[in-house]
């Protein structure tokens, strides 16, 4: 049973994750308003997201090493404060160039925050429950897609994009204050600064990072264009698409809860459920779904259940194989995750441009099955 202070601290970190992911995806939620406000094209606004991922991938390992001797609470506070500052800068930006600078500031903080948040939650809850601790704080990620992005989009259309971005900045600033008030000081577990190469190239991490790269690439090859997939296979558009995406988000949250409860006791089984389950849903969608809109709709929603636990089983594996360098090992995992997102989105975009979107579903399913084979043979996911 959790004591009250630990429960509040975990809730605070969950809220910070919610704010971080909502901020990360603001260009997606506010794309038409940002394009009109800065006088640029939609792809230029999209660069604020893809460039964000590139900055995270490049900066996260050296920044995590640089902050390795900081108190972990202070690191979380500073990185969320960076999200607040960046959004103030974005809201006040006179032109596109300043907007790009604002996103660079946010991306630098984002990578470090996501490298330490699961290790911090694990220290609060105990190493024997690292998977559950990760699931609790990562619920903020799922809630951001379920509530944060639709709310940001609605606010952008209602009150304008600048007040909306300022609201996100205020939420980030409040999160930093509450982290300071509720999370106890957490000194670094090692006094010496780690050797980066030794920490991120450990052989035990290799299968985890490989699974991360493969499964994330496959997922985002399809998920990045999920609205097009829904239109082609479920044959719904407009408000009906929003309803289906809401169901997808709710199913993802359910998957997070179910997998989070079991990942500590059944690491391999939960990892195989995530990878194999996602592959099965995508295969059903691409075959039977093409013949039945009802089957397609069900497959889309069920796809979210294993996908909702994806980050949990991967982060839990990192903490399992590298407990002595959890933050830097997590940074390497974040790099693999971001590369998977960028590569998957690029592959899916190529399939969309060439009229071969079913190939993106096939690639996603193949990646899920390939990742399952690695998991089956890897000691990083014990039976």
From TrEMBL:
Which InterPro entries does the entry mention?
MFS, MFS_dom, MFS_Efflux_Transporters, MFS_trans_sf
Main location per the UniProt record: membrane
Q: How does it sit in the membrane?
A: Multi-pass membrane protein
> Which SUPFAM superfamilies has this protein been placed in?
MFS general substrate transporter
One Pfam match, given by its short name, reads: MFS_1
Q: Name one GO cellular component term.
A: plasma membrane
Keyword Cell membrane (UniProt): yes
Q: Does the keyword Iron-sulfur apply?
A: no
A molecular function (GO) held by this record is:
transmembrane transporter activity
Where along the sequence do coiled-coil regions lie? none
Highest taxon listed in the record's lineage: Bacteria
Give TM regions.
47-67, 74-94, 100-121, 133-155, 161-183, 204-226, 238-259, 271-291, 297-319, 331-350, 356-375
Q: Which UniProt keywords apply?
A: Cell membrane, Membrane, Transmembrane, Transmembrane helix
Annotated compartments: Cell membrane
Q: Which residues form the Major facilitator superfamily (MFS) profile domain?
A: 9-383
Name of the protein: MFS transporter
This chain's source organism reads Amycolatopsis bartoniae
